[in-house]
Specification:
Blueprint: E1 3-9, H1 16-29, E2 33-37, H2 40-46, E3 51-53, H3 81-93, E4 98-103, H4 105-127, H5 133-138, E5 143-148, H6 164-185, E6 188-193, H7 200-209, E7 213-215, H8 226-239, E8 245-250, H9 263-274, E9 278-282, H10 294-313, E10 321-326, E11 329-334, H11 335-350, H12 354-360, H13 363-375, E12 391-397, H14 404-417, E13 421-425, H15 428-434, E14 437-440, H16 466-477, E15 482-487, H17 489-500, E16 512-516, H18 532-548, E17 555-561, H19 568-577, E18 581-583, H20 591-606, E19 611-617, H21 626-637, E20 642-647, H22 659-681, E21 687-693, E22 696-701, H23 705-708, E23 709-710, E24 715-716, H24 725-732
Bound molecules: adenosine-5'-diphosphate (ADP).
Adenosine-5'-diphosphate binds near residues 103, 104 and 110.
């Protein structure tokens, strides 16, 4: 294959630019000629100047832009065979052999149809004399690869689609803002979010915002008179002291009979029956706007690179594929299969088979729905008579991480709803030594879903020696049956210490579980930790601003990020901002690296580069410090460029948790309560850490932790994201053959 084309189509989604950049640059790097088709299928049907060759530089400086720089459109003509005939003609004129489609299910359906009709359409063009036999001979097949660009996350073929995470960011920014005004005036807000056939955004934003009621298409309220049920729940909420009330409605929400539920209707019900002062906010296109989140930039970048891998290795006669992501693994799915499964959900909803619709969405969607239904309750369920009532303690450990409060809120409510007593330990393990333990009730965690910092308090103290005796005494006094630790590496060490001493201290002979919460993402038994996504977004928005500050000068920035000895934030930050270089402790930094990089920067600035960006981990190398690097680059750069350093510091630990961190924290917390209940009921004193591994939530026994950790550097021995280094390097600086094509990051 020599020549491919890429286009964006249908509703725009943040991250489309990152995908485009990755497709173009990885394609060029592979020796392909890459064309962009402007304005989606319209451009394909029109042809001419709408189909243009792309250079390395053409897709520079676009990672942070929302929308799509090559335009998107809805095209009626392409829905007809005549339109597709013109499109094929144009593709043949440009000798395009492969297509990368970035769009939603409509756009991908269009591509699937085009592929199926390809031979017939080419033949028709030959028969009508518009295309020569020779040209047709060369165009026997068309390879098609799709990337799902859809803020609704409504398609099979990827756990999450390009744009959905950013849309959640926009929704959560709005709901956080609304919550504070609603609380001040004791108002009720009805918020409509996008999702005509898919309740993903509504459900996840309800989970992340701590909303009080949610209505989604896949699972309409289970009673006809749902209005009474909702009002009763909200009234209870007011009675127990909720100041702000929020109802989230997916735009495609219906009742059990398929009748649309509008925000107007919900507002009227609340006003008429509860006398509430209700306001409607329709978020609309705000959800498609703004800068893409760090997650969407990196997801789309990986998918773009994978699309090139797929298209260059697939049989051009073979079935079209979709590239997607499951957990952190890239996947390829047959496009027709993904489309059929997507349609099956819509069909199930249309046929009012709601249980089937929910089941088809997958286990984690259904589980999230159950969790949200519990969390929104004003009061817990009455415990079953045979329910064993446990006393569970929650403690933090390690530095603060956004999302800690979210995890505690979910654990408290789920635990209480199951009849248990939940005890909060103030000030981490130091507080456990001092007996700072208090009962947390349903309302004591109200409003914690989106609160940054750590309400219970956290620090890095690890108990030793006589501390253990004091802790054992408090655990016994409080009759604690199990412990949930939400925190980072020192929290894990503390739990390992208690668990390891259970033969000496009977009080420690109870189940304990660790929930990973640290911005560093350096913990065992999980590919991700709560807080890392928020920190990454803080880095990305800071670097976006730093880059903008340098518009008029030739300047290089050296940005230092946190992570302790773990380079996750540095590498993922580099990937999301298009940094030309990144330095990690894991990979080491040598003088030779620095000399090579200086030379590369000099060459680039000599040939038109105006802005350079280097991201380094705080402990990448103690001798070659950030300051040393700055002076080295400054001295060697001479008049070509000047250098500034930016140490981002604690802004990375602060801020309100991102939607991803809130959702992740909630899901993990629920499973931690499951673990403790099960272990206690089975009379085990097992210890575990919970985490996400290849898309699934799993438990790792504490016994396995020592084998997985590099204790000296407090990070796991194996870190999946290290495999992303080549992509980050390839995409940010042009290889030797493309140096004439511009240097924008
Ligand atoms: P999205 O891709 O975001 O789902 P649309 O459903 O509007 O957005 O589809 C975008 C474009 O894809 C349409 O304007 C049309 O050109 C093309 N398309 C959608 N469905 C089909 C179809 N069934 N057959 C041919 N082309 C289609």
């Amino acid at each position: 294959m020599k020549r491919i084309a890429v286009f964006t189509s249908g509703g725009d989604a943040q991250g489309m630019n990152a995908a485009l950049r990755a497709v173009v640059r990885t394609g060029l790097e592979r020796g392909l000629e890459v064309f962009a088709i402007y304005e989606g299928y319209s451009g394909m049907v029109e042809g001419g100047s709408r189909i243009k060759p792309m250079t390395w530089g053409d897709v520079g400086g676009i990672l942070h832009l929302g929308g799509t720089i090559i335009g998107s459109a809805r095209c009626k003509e392409f829905r007809e065979r005549a339109g597709r005939l013109r499109a094929v003609h144009n593709l043949l004129l440009h000798e395009i052999e492969g297509l990368v489609v970035i769009g939603g299910d409509g756009s991908l359906t269009g591509a699937d149809i085009l592929k199926r009709e390809w031979t017939g359409l080419v033949q028709e063009l030959v028969e009508t004399g518009r295309v020569s036999k020779n040209a047709a001979e060369r165009a026997k097949s068309l390879a098609v690869v799709g990337i799902i660009g859809s803020i609704d996350n409504d398609m099979f073929g990827s756990d999450i689609t390009t744009g959905a995470d950013t849309a959640l960011h926009r929704i959560i920014e709005a709901t956080d803002a609304i919550s504070s005004t609603a609380a001040s005036h004791q108002r009720t807000f009805v918020v409509e979010v996008m999702g005509r056939h898919c309740g993903y955004l509504a459900l996840m934003s309800a989970m992340a915002s701590g909303a009080d009621w949610v209505l989604i298409p896949e699972s309409p309220p289970d009673v006809d008179d749902w209005e009474s049920k909702m009002c009763e729940a909200l009234l209870h909420g007011r009675e127990v002291g909720r100041r702000d009330i929020m109802v989230i409605v997916a735009e495609g929400a219906t009742d059990r009979n398929g009748k649309e539920i509008t925000t107007e209707h919900v507002k009227k019900v609340l006003e008429d029956r509860l006398g509430e002062d209700a306001r409607i906010t329709v978020l609309g296109h705000v959800q498609r706007g703004g800068a893409p989140s760090a997650f969407d930039r990196n997801l789309s970048t990986m998918l773009g690179a994978e699309a090139i891998e797929a298209i260059t290795s697939m049989d051009p006669n073979g079935e079209p594929l979709i590239v997607g992501m499951q957990g952190n693994k890239l996947t390829r799915t047959r496009l027709d299969v993904a489309l059929a499964k997507t349609k099956a959900v819509a069909d199930a909803v249309a046929a009012k088979n709601f249980d089937e619709a929910l089941a088809l969405r997958g286990q984690s969607f259904a589980e999230s729905f159950r969790v949200v239904r519990t969390l929104v309750r004003a009061l817990p369920h009455e415990p079953a008579p045979d329910q064993r009532r446990l006393r569970l303690a929650i403690v933090h450990g390690g530095g603060p991480a956004p999302g800690m409060n979210t995890a505690v809120r979910a654990a408290v409510r789920i635990g209480i709803d199951r009849g248990h007593t939940i005890l909060g330990v103030r000030n981490a393990f130091r507080g456990l030594v001092n007996g700072e333990i208090e009962e947390l009730n349903w309302m004591s965690v109200n409003g914690w879903a989106g609160r940054g910092g750590s309400e219970l308090g956290t620090n890095r103290a690890v108990p030793k020696g006589r501390d253990l005796y004091a802790i054992a005494r408090h655990l016994e006094e409080q009759k604690i049956d199990g412990i949930l630790m939400v925190g980072g590496w020192s929290g894990y060490q503390s739990i390992l210490e208690l668990h390891g001493q259970r033969h000496n201290y009977p009080a420690f002979d109870i189940p304990m579980i660790c929930l990973p919460a640290t911005i560093n993402n350096n913990l065992p038994g999980t590919e991700l930790s709560v807080g890392a996504d928020t920190a990454l977004n803080s880095i990305v928005s800071a670097v976006d601003k730093i880059k903008q500050s340098a518009v008029a000068s030739q300047r290089a920035f050296i940005v230092e990020v946190m992570g302790y000895y773990c380079g996750y934030l540095a590498l993922m930050g580099a990937l999301a901002t298009g940094a030309e270089r990144f330095y990690l402790h894991e990979a080491g930094v040598t003088m030779r690296d620095l000399v090579e990089d200086v030379e590369e920067f000099k060459h680039a600035f000599q040939h038109g580069k105006r802005l350079g960006l280097i991201i380094r981990n705080e402990k990448a190398n103690e001798v070659y410090s950030t300051h040393f690097m700055r002076t080295l680059f400054e001295e060697e750069g001479g008049d070509l460029f000047d250098v500034r350093e930016a140490i981002l510091g604690h802004l990375q630990q602060g801020g309100t948790p991102s939607p991803f961190d809130r959702i992740f924290a909630t899901r993990l917390a629920v499973r931690c309560i499951d673990f403790l209940e099960q272990a206690i009921n089975n009379r085990e004193s097992s210890g575990a850490c919970i985490g996400q591994i290849q898309g699934d939530i799993r438990y790792t026994s504490l016994e396995d932790v020592p084998r997985q950790m590099d204790y000296q550097h407090s990070r796991p021995l194996k870190q999946w994201w290290m495999d992303l280094r080549p992509i980050a390097r390839v995409l940010a600086l042009p290889g030797p053959s493309m140096r004439g094509q511009g240097y924008r990051g």
